[in-house]
Give the backbone structure.
Amino acid sequence: MMVHYLLRPLALKDAPLMLEWMHSQDIVKHLQADFREKTLADCEAFILSSHTDKNNLHLAIVTETDEYMGTISLKNMVANTAEFAICMRQSAMGTGLASAAMDRILTKGFDEVGLESIYWYVSTENKRAIRFYDKNGYKRTNFRQIIIGGGKPASSQYVWYQETKYRPLE
């Protein structure tokens, strides 16, 4: 199945559909932030700030008709490393958009931004997200040790993933 989508800068017109996923208990129940408290004004402020933010890259995932389907991000871009994040509207789930958009932003991070490592973590309770990442071949890691230092073991509360620019041959 061919998935038609674009990544583009967030636009103010995306705010109502962004708020839709933020207020969906099913979507946000395993996320760290309490998005259910967010307002349309909060979404608009986030969108506007994304246009000048140098440490974070937040993009809209949109259909070929420019309908907002979710937000994909590279956050905390420091020392050639960034944290990946994605959140999709319920109507986008199961369409292949998330997988295609993730491939694109990882490539963009490595080839255009110059990152060498992109990591993310998921609550162990977020079975849907873990299935998605595992099904798409992303490798679990103990990357938390690198971030925190001191060789502390990764918390059992999260499953960690990492992609690197220079992937070893298998």
Observations:
- Residues 15 and 44 are 6 Å apart (CA to CA).
- The chain is about 30% helix and 30% strand.
- Confidence is low (pLDDT under 50) at residues 148-154.
- The longest strand covers residues 68-78.
